């Protein structure tokens, strides 16, 4: 009788800094000579990396086997407008062409379902406002059955049946524009509880209020629900917070604070939790990656019981890049971490172009037209645009090599 297979999450060795496995540079063009990656995500099978870039492109890369600073993406999918967000289809894999696709949110365009092999459009989902304008969502998430797609935008969440392209069902997050109740502002983050039997999801908005995170249920609508631990980060704010939703949500359970005093950035810096729920990774504007251990409480704290917020320090912190880290992502299969770096830096340009005569004839000043000075528009520069993967394997273990599935 054959023994049953038992799945185990990847084991991360944080006793030392990880080893650098691959380095990829995003492709550049004449219009975007300082191109850099905004976000990169592993495919669900851990074999492919999809990157959202500043030059309005998606760039697809294999999990390369060798370190090379000159490595470039395998495929590039250009878009007509800036990209706001994207997500993989939950079962996407190059081994299954039917599922190898992703959802893209492009400004002033319908939500797109794109084939990850060649970039062709498979389906589109329309979000239209009261003036018949196309709205691109700022956040997207599939429910646990992958049958519905949730898209967050200003004061609402649009829900689509994935099998029926077209228009969806709108769920307002606030009763009205003038109302102070509900979740107001742009819905910038959506996340479902990663449990097959759960229909609970969280939504966060860009509204600068103390109540800009709400919990919803697919079946009960906009009613408070009680999952377990929720993690959230805020823009222009370094620490990451967690709450035990079963207890007093007015007080955070933990605060994960990196050891950095670097200046804040308006850039959206994303964090990630590994599939086993043991580690949280975040990148900072100073190019460092912080790893935090997640020790979830096994005993439920009574709602009436007061507890103090625990401040968590990084279990491991290492220099990964020389610029802001836009996103980090754990590989779902192997003990690997993906990180991307890049941001716009503006340098003052004292030079200027002038039109008109350089002669300074005082006798003809009244006859000359006013002198016009054209100031050069500052062009952004980048410091580090690399896309890196890091291995947390133990020294005596060999890292499994993801198979090359992309032609």
Description:
The structure is a single chain. With 407 residues, the protein is mostly beta strands. It has strands spanning 19-24, 37-42, 48-53, 57-62, 75-78, 83-88, 101-106, 111-115, 121-126, 139-142, 148-153, 156-161, 166-167, 169-172, 187-192, 200-205, 213-217, 229-233, 240-244, 254-256, 271-273, 279-283, 288-293, 310-312, 316-319, 325-330, 336-341, 345-346, 352-355, 372-375, 380-381, 387-391. The strands form nine sheets. Strands 6-7-8-9-13 form a five-stranded mixed sheet, with no helix packed on it. Strands 1-32-27-26 form a four-stranded antiparallel sheet, with no helix packed on it. A hairpin with a 5-residue loop joins strand 21 and strand 22. The radius of gyration is 24 Å and the shape is globular.
Residue runs with pLDDT of under 50 for 5 or more positions = 223-227, 297-304, 350-362, 402-407
Which structural class do the helices and strands define? mainly beta
Beta percentage is 35-45%
> Rounded to an integer, what's the Rg over CA atoms?
24 Å
Separation of termini?
39 Å
* Average predicted local confidence, pLDDT: 82
User: Main beta sheet, described?
Assistant: 5 strands, mixed
Write the layout of secondary structure elements.
Blueprint: E1 19-24, E2 37-42, E3 48-53, E4 57-62, E5 75-78, E6 83-88, E7 101-106, E8 111-115, E9 121-126, E10 139-142, E11 148-153, E12 156-161, E13 166-167, E14 169-172, E15 187-192, E16 200-205, E17 213-217, E18 229-233, E19 240-244, E20 254-256, E21 271-273, E22 279-283, E23 288-293, E24 310-312, E25 316-319, E26 325-330, E27 336-341, E28 345-346, E29 352-355, E30 372-375, E31 380-381, E32 387-391
Parallel strand pairs: 9-13, 20-24
Antiparallel strand pairs: 1-32, 2-3, 3-4, 4-5, 6-7, 7-8, 8-9, 10-11, 11-12, 12-14, 15-16, 16-17, 18-19, 19-20, 21-22, 22-23, 23-25, 26-27, 27-32, 28-31, 29-30
